[in-house]
Amino acid sequence: MRLGNRAVNKRNHIDEQMCALGLEPQALNGEQKRQLDEDVYLLLESAIGSQWLDQLREAFDLIHASAGTEAGKEVAQIKGVRRLADLVNKDAYFDAVYLYAPLLAAVHHVLKRPFKLHSLNGHNPLKGSGLQPLHSDTGQECIPSGPYHVVNSMWMLDDFTAENCATRVVPRSHLKADRLGNYVEDGLAGHPEQIHLLGKAGTIAIFNGNVWHSSCISRSGAKRRTLPVHLLRTSTSSKPTSDSICAQRRPPDYRS
Q: What pTM did the predictor assign?
């Protein structure tokens, strides 16, 4: 799903196509911009209201129970993790997630160009599982000053704690001008500069996809349901090599 086109409203710096959808421009304050630029992550506390949070939790659990052993298969199944995929086509409650105005403002600030929804999935590591190697989402050498290609957000449906596998990031790692493997020998090991994105249920964490990050081991087994939402720069010079990796919004009756 494309969230922007080449025509940009210069007055308020939002894609005209977004305006046509009725989305209001959302300004970031100076501190929020600094956090995205320098620390490469931003925490929006209490962003998901209690009623919306309950709806998203219920939808997460119902979809996972309904899918059974097929849950998450559209993208990837991971041992020890309750996975969901293609949520943009699973329930209308998720529509407001990828159209959340502060999220779109943050993505536009980082990417500074039109972008589209890449994926909206579900992730809940179980006790003793969840560890991923540190990685960035570019898969290529980075230019510290940009342009950047991906912005991630983690929608915390439960508390994110150090004991239940809260996502770790390495601040300012997006400023490294070489591949991660040239700096880190063991991506599964702890990094001396890593921090955990801790937050109460209802918090949204947003970060530059160039930053090194990963999920960690859930030691407590407490629920840590999250909606990872990835937004990707729209190429202005060529088509994506595979449309199948990008979210495609289907007609409403597909989700009935």
A: 0.81
